């Protein structure tokens, strides 16, 4: 018996050290096969003019209509040559590649009054910002499979400023458009593209599976409201790697619906890997929530390099959310300058309406955070669970969060049960359960 357990322990150590942890070459980008498209068309064949002034909506719609209806074997590549292609929002179709050449820019028009409206997501019950419908995303995909957006680092530009100003002056009628949304879609690849100045969230896969996003650059000013980088929402098998994100809100935020609507829709986010992300934001680097009502599980984030952050790692939910956040593994995070290193909170975010159930408490359990190194971090961490639903299995190991000389503060905890190993500054007593050493070392 003794021998068996020793060998199992030894084996699991080996397995861990030879698999993803610490391996900077690991990749999940192979989950969606890259298909070669023999059929190629150019936006200029459909009347596209890249002069920065001509509105190219008809060209995009005609080219994509052609792809959708001719259904060429192996799909079709739509080539965007260098130039600035102004357009209204448009829908993609299945089996297509949108290929942006070096120097190609697809730029959104700024006619907010004319922007198409679509239904709210069932898991949100209303627009995220305002009741009712929501503006369609600039580039939209609904019910698609096998779609690639790639090229030689061309740019998709949302010209979000007018939308941010409407938010600032409270003149928005509906929820702002995302830059790109895929809904109910699968086999999606987004790579080697620059996204800039999204009106709202940048890349929003919702009710999707098998989504790969890698080598993207996402840029928006630090003061632009709600310009989240990538928000996988009620989606599974998502791989996000090798990207630079600097925006005005969370860099990557995993979500799964909002209060009673998200609970009723019941669609979790699971099996999501986030790896080798670099960036900066006044909000969070790696975020989970705060919309977590469909449940969020089996998430790995590793090799994350952050500078000038609000919060390094932020897990956030609220009463009324229901659902769960479980089996989350975050490791190898480097933070240079942040207000908070790690924050796990049960009191974040607003409610869609007054009909949320205050007894629907989220379950937060099994959060493992390992190898975090921070310099100039003002507050090491705060872990505040819910009275009626304490956060359990919170395991912190090998964490060093150094404050600047005058602002050094330690951990704040409440309603949390967990363990810690080699954490500096010394963690709160709630994270010093006896036997914690073994629990931490055997689960990582
Ligand atoms: C989870 O995602 C990984 C890639 O990140 C994939 O290889 C694996 O098959 C997925 N697991 C399941 C159960 O689908
Ligand atoms: C684009 O897709 C949306 C959502 O599926 C739909 O409501 C809209 O009519 C489509 N627009 C066009 C121009 O096809
Ligand atoms: C595009 O940008 C990414 C990220 O900066 C970079 O890794 C990649 O080499 C670039 N690709 C091309 C084709 O220039």
TrEMBL record:
Keyword terms of this UniProt record: Glycosidase, Hydrolase, Signal
Organism phylogeny: Eukaryota, Viridiplantae, Streptophyta, Embryophyta, Tracheophyta
One Gene Ontology term of the molecular function aspect: polygalacturonase activity
Homology family: Belongs to the glycosyl hydrolase 28 family.
Signal peptide positions (record): 1-19
GO annotation (BP), single: carbohydrate metabolic process
Species for this entry: Arabidopsis thaliana x Arabidopsis arenosa
One Pfam short name: Glyco_hydro_28
Annotated InterPro entries: GH28_Enzymes (IPR051801), Glyco_hydro_28 (IPR000743), PbH1 (IPR006626), RHGA/B-epi-like_pectate_lyase (IPR024535)
Ranges that cross the membrane: none
Superkingdom assignment: Eukaryota
Name of the featured protein: Parallel beta-helix repeat
Domain Rhamnogalacturonase A/B/Epimerase-like pectate lyase: 41-89
């Amino acid at each position: 018996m003794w021998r068996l357990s020793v060998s199992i322990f030894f084996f699991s150590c080996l397995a861990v050290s030879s698999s993803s942890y610490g391996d900077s070459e690991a990749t999940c980008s192979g989950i969606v096969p890259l298909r070669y498209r023999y059929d190629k068309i150019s936006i200029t064949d459909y009347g596209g003019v890249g002069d920065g002034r001509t509105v190219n909506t008809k060209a995009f719609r005609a080219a994509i209509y052609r792809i959708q209806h001719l259904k060429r074997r192996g799909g079709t590549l739509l080539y965007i040559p260098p130039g600035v292609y102004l357009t209204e929002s448009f829908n993609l179709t299945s089996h297509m590649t949108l290929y942006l050449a070096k120097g190609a820019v697809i730029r959104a028009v700024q006619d907010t009054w004319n922007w198409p409206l679509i239904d709210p997501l069932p898991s949100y019950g209303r627009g995220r910002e305002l009741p009712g419908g929501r503006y369609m995303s600039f580039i939209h995909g609904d019910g698609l499979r096998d779609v690639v957006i790639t090229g030689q680092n061309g740019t998709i530009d949302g010209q979000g400023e007018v939308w941010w100003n409407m938010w600032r002056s409270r003149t928005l009628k509906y929820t702002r458009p995302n830059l790109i949304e895929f809904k109910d879609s699968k086999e999606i690849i987004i790579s080697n593209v620059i996204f800039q100045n999204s009106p709202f969230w940048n890349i929003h896969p919702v009710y999707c599976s098998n989504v790969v996003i890698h080598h993207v650059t996402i840029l928006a000013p630090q003061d632009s409201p709600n310009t989240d980088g990538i928000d996988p929402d009620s989606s599974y098998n998502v791989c996000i790697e090798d990207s630079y994100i600097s925006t005005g809100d969370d860099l990557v935020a995993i979500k799964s619906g909002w209060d009673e609507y998200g609970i009723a829709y019941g669609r979790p986010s699971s099996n999501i890997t986030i790896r080798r992300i670099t960036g900066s934001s006044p909000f969070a680097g790696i975020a989970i929530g705060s919309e977590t009502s469909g449940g969020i599980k089996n998430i790995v984030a590793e090799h994350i390099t952050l500078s000038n952050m609000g919060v390094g790692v932020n897990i956030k939910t609220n009463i009324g959310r229901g659902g769960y956040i479980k089996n989350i593994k975050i490791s190898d995070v480097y933070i240079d300058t942040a207000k908070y290193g790690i924050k796990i909170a049960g009191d974040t975010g607003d409610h869609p309406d007054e009909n949320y159930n205050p007894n629907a408490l989220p379950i937060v359990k099994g959060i493992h955070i390992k190898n975090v190194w921070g310099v100039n971090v003002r507050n090491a961490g705060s872990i505040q669970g819910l009275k009626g639903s304490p956060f359990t299995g919170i395991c912190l190991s090998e964490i060093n969060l150094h404050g600047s000389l005058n602002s050094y503060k330690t951990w704040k905890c409440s309603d949390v049960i967990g363990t810690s190993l080699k954490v500096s500054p010394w963690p709160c007593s709630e994270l010093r359960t006896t036997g914690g050493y073994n629990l931490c070392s055997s689960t990582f």
